[in-house]
Design goal:
Blueprint (H helix, E strand, L loop, with lengths): L2 H12 L5 E3 L9 E3 L3 E3 L7 E4 L2 E4 H18 L9 E7 L6 H17 L6 E6 L2 E7 L8 E8 L5
Parallel strand pairs: 6-9
Antiparallel strand pairs: 1-2, 2-3, 4-5, 6-8, 7-8
């Protein structure tokens, strides 16, 4: 039973069903049979982006991009002058290939680090990707930290 199914099972219990049987017919729909009369199939709803290769779940790009950004930010080293900075990024699809995008991001971050006067700012890396740099209130273990992101295709 996965996390979505555990959540659904807990909800079904709150509805007062006495007998909740998981996968009553094996690993085929429905996921639950409640009191031998109500069948429930658990589904996760995905948002998709349709690109030139067809539909892809939004999380396919956003999760990979988040991991890569964290790794890049941590690779920039420890804080200097007793200051750390949060980096928030915004993107929209299609996202530029990471091999092309990451050197551009790194270049802008290094320019920021080398500037003698540092202040909060927003930088457009490419049309579909920008970063916002904000001072952290306390010094952290690295110069840059991921402060969050905005996915322009994601709704809520």
């Amino acid at each position: 039973m996965d996390a979505s199914e555990r959540l659904a099972e807990a909800y079904l219990k709150t509805l007062g069903f006495k007998e909740i049987k998981y996968e009553p017919d094996g690993n085929v729909p429905p996921d639950f049979l409640c009191d031998r009369r109500v069948a429930v199939e658990v589904r996760r709803l995905n948002q998709n982006f349709v690109g030139h290769t067809g539909p892809k779940g939004l999380e396919e790009v956003s999760i990979a991009l988040g991991k890569r950004m964290r790794k890049l930010l941590l690779s920039m080293g420890a804080p200097t002058e007793g200051k750390s900075w949060f980096v928030r990024y915004r993107f929209q699809r299609p996202v530029l290939d990471w091999k092309i995008l990451s050197p551009k991001i790194e270049h802008e971050l290094r320019m920021f680090m080398s500037n003698s006067v540092r202040h909060e700012m927003t930088m457009t890396i490419v049309n579909s990707f920008s970063i916002q740099i904000t001072a952290a209130t306390i010094v952290r273990s690295s110069y840059f930290l991921l402060g969050g992101f905005t996915d322009h295709e994601s709704g809520g």
